[in-house]
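S.,

As promised, the pyridoxal-5'-phosphate run. Input:
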Amino acid sequence: MQIHRNDDIYATLGVKRRINAAGTLTRLGGALMAPEVIDAMVAAAGSSVDIGELQAAASRTIARITGAEAGIVTTGAAAALTLAAAASMTRWDITKMAALPHADGFAHEILLPRTHHTGYAHALRAAGARLVDISHNDRGTGAGVRGIEPWEIETAITSKTAAFAFAANPTSIGDLPTVVSVCKARGIPVIVDAAAQLPPKSNLCRFFELGADLVAFSGGKAIGGPQASGILAGRRDLVGAALVQQLDMDVAPETWTPPDLIDRAALKGVPHHGLGRGFKVGKEEIAGLLVALERFANADDAAVNAALEARLKRIAEMLGGLPGIGTQLLSARETGRVPQLRLVIDPAMAHIDALGLSRALQSADLPVHLSERFAHQGVLIIDPQALRAEDDEEVVAAVKRVALA
Ligand SMILES: *Cc1c(COP(=O)(O)O)cnc(C)c1O
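Predicted complex:
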């Protein structure tokens, strides 16, 4: 089978290519990579390298761009959370590393505010941690004025506490300084899930500026890296303890040459394969992620957003006049992320509701996916992050076919 760079590999494999106007969803393959990111992966694929040395280079790049002390490439933000939980529980203790995920004999509780309990909290538990529900957080639920309070954290911390987990978003972020100030004083690492908090790219640095100890980012979302990549960045000792639990450890102690990030003097011996061995990251992913990260950090956001907005404006014009379907263009400033085009479906006027329209688009011969995040409110969103410009017209044609059927 001969495959070339621009072939439709999915057709060759008997699988449908899909038009993704739903954002960088993992189930649709995440971000699309820019040619220079693809080139980095291809270049990396042809030679051998010491993965520990490559991760040390990754750490220097991630540190320079984020302001963190250190960072490693992971197989995604979820893997970064599992490694963060493992590192917080074990630190440099190789006996604890060997025991995971059975952690009953040592500090293994992770404090998690109720309103931060996303589906991704499972990634913390996967390391063997027990999640401890804390706080009231009426501000998070919209029921009241109070956020997380210092006493709620102080009284929850015990000798079993290994870390505090914080799910960052524009609503929760105001509570991070309180969490950091209480946890820092007690030596409890604060792990921030910032997987999808990019853009804005200022968030690459923001959580470290606010004092987070470890932060997880997705590489396959806005950063535009390989789908199966992510970043775990933060305190050097914790990142190092995560790395040693991710690397292939089938090594001869006499010849093992770990990178500086791994504090060999702090290790009582050479650990065996750790909890993170199943999250091994490839040389291609590391190279691709680093090129994508540089690209993302250096991009001219205003120009990128203006180009996306111009495309969405054109799509909105082409969709004008459909019965029962209105459009609403939101700028990057309004969404806090990238521009979006909302299709507002009036069930009294349209012959189909939002989920019906979405289902019909997805089952077409060339399936089109719009974001269903607000479908329960009668709104489908065209999110342009993973939408190729050459597919814009097909999105319009597909919506028209269903709406006018
Ligand atoms: C996407 C996401 C993750 C998981 O990220 P991956 O890189 O796909 O592993 C974790 N947390 C949140 C909040 C996310 O949106």
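The radius of gyration is 23 Å. The mean pLDDT is 96.

- D.
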